Amino acid sequence: MTTYDASFRVWRGDTAGGGLKDFTVEVNDGEVVLDIIHRLQATQAPDLAVRWNCKAGKCGSCSAEINGRPRLMCMTRMSVFSRDEVITVTPLRAFPVVRDLVTDVSFNYEKAREIPSFVPPPGVAPGDYRMRQEDVDRPQEFRKCIECFLCQDTCHVVRDHEENKAAFAGPRFLMRIAELDMHPLDAAEEAGLDRKRTAQDEHGLGYCNITKCCTEVCPEQIKITDNALIPLKERAVDRKYDPLVWLGNKIGRRRP
Ligand code: SF4
Ligand code: SF4
Ligand code: FES
Asked: Which spans of this chain does the record mark as coiled coil (predicted)?
């Protein structure tokens, strides 16, 4: 087994402030960044706060920024860095720090709660739902999401613009709206809920300028921009400029 010493620079601090601290830590073959953070805890910084759970890229809790790039610590192999490189580990920048590498991601849970859930089709009991395989395949990609919030962290709309957070759900939750909107059994529209309009008017779809940064950092390789956000934008625009919808709105508005 090969062993070497790596130079790490880890952010330490809390809500009152903090800064980067230098450490030299042992690295063994096959290890990932989370192993090194655990070794730091075990040998030099027992009070270092870090959130993790599965160490298998499935729980989404070990999100951090490694050399400035949002990544899962448990899925970032040490072998991708050269041995003389200083590796910087900092908390997710778009969310408030709790302590060290742990951030308060409740922004995301608030956004999740704002999105109305699936509306079951009337007159069809669960278990009797029938869908074509191609209709299953499209939203299935989005169901791979592990809610690591790396896409939310990297999106420039909120990353440096706290003021946009109230009006913008972020890629993960715009993708959730897209998933529900393309679900062939979702009866939201019949129930009076226009998901395309709410995406635009209430969840800030228009803020997204399809830079694809969210797609680049997704550990599940979900094509967030191409398969969710762009189709949702197209459907929202189709709806807005559909002459029948326009006429319907006009007539609707004239009603007493
Ligand atoms: S594609 Fe849209 S949602 Fe994704 S990072 Fe860019 S602006 Fe944000
Ligand atoms: S879409 Fe990808 S990056 Fe965003 S929360 Fe889900 S798994 Fe993470
Ligand atoms: S510890 Fe679960 S995704 Fe990294």
From this structure: none
Q: How many domains are there within the chain?
A: 2
Q: List pLDDT tens digits, range 33-71.
A: 999 999 999 999 999 999 999 999 999 999 999 999 999
Nearest CA to ligand 3 atom 1: 55
- Please give the angle made by the CA atoms of 206, 170 and 226, to the nearest 5 degrees: 70
| Ligand 2 binding pocket includes 222 (Cβ within 6 Å) | yes
Report CA(210)–ligand 3 centroid distance (Å): 27
Per-residue model confidence as pLDDT tens digits over 133-143: 999 888 999 99
Q: Which of 68, 103, 138 finishes a domain? A: 103
How far apart are the CA of 14 and the centre of ligand 1, in A?
29
Phi/psi at 6 (5° precision): -110, 150
State the Cα–Cα distance between residues 67 and 8, nearest whole angstrom: 10
Per the structure, the complete domain to which residue 36 belongs is given by 3-103
